[in-house]
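Usage

Read records sequentially. Each one opens with the input sequence:
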Amino acid sequence: MTQIGLLILVVLGAIKAYLILTTGVCTSTKKLTGKTVIITGANTGIGKETALDLAKRGARVILACRDPKKAAIAKEDIIRESRNKNVFIRQLDLTSLKSVRKFAADILKSELRLDILINNAGCATIEKKLTEDGLEVQMQSNHFGHFLLTNLLLGNVRIINVSSTAHRWIKKLNLDDLTFERDPSDNKILNIYGITKLCNVLFSKELAKKLEPFGVTVNCLHPGAVKTEIFRNAPTWFQIIAAVCIPLFFKSAKEGAQTSIHLAVADEVANVTGEYFSDCKIAKTSKLAKDLELAKQLWEVSETFVKLKPEERHF
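and closes with the structure output:
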């Protein structure tokens, strides 16, 4: 092996060691017996690992998933590994506002309580297209769908939104073009993904402010670069790069779920709200994500896009 090759191996090894040492782990042993949890996108990846962990803690876990067949397989796995039969499937397609409303109505009718809502589902690098509601598909799946869902289920519920460090890519947010039809610079699939993740942070900030008087907490998080199926719709060239980089530098789904689990169970964050977490601790956001006036304006625009009805408004 040449000296250059050896140096590359040493550098890669050092990077991998650093990633392992800095990966946050939820150390709480708290049980969730008697608690009800909803996790969107819980049939695979981070969502499934989060569901498994919370099921092991005794929670009643609702898997909110678009594909019932895939959800059924995940449910069987979770019940088998957790030995908790209180795992249920409810169909939810975040790219359909009709589906979101039906899901929420069914939950409010069938569930006696709801304690934790984890808005985990998301998509990335999907070709730009509009949903049946006339909204850009990544934007609706990652932001608008969860915005509506959360508003419909508001109550004494701990809310956890899975965002991403990708929000840092975005230096401006044009609230007049959230369908990405005007500004060419925003019309790229990776840029749209970053915008959706910025919206997750801004939504969390504004909702936390609105709910603070009621003692309800809202936080968001960056799970890390995680080996999941989120890039399954990416272009071939992107998947080739990912195939090389993911095994070396990405977390496993179980590692990626740790911060979501931490926010759901840890006593030390029980009264923390409006924060952004990474590796189970509070982290810094971009400057734009701290703009509370922008967060307020995004809320107002989002109400319009999802056609939030007067009876659905809590504020």
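Summary fields computed downstream for this record:
- DSSP finds ten helices and eight strands in the chain.
- The chain has one domain: 26-308.
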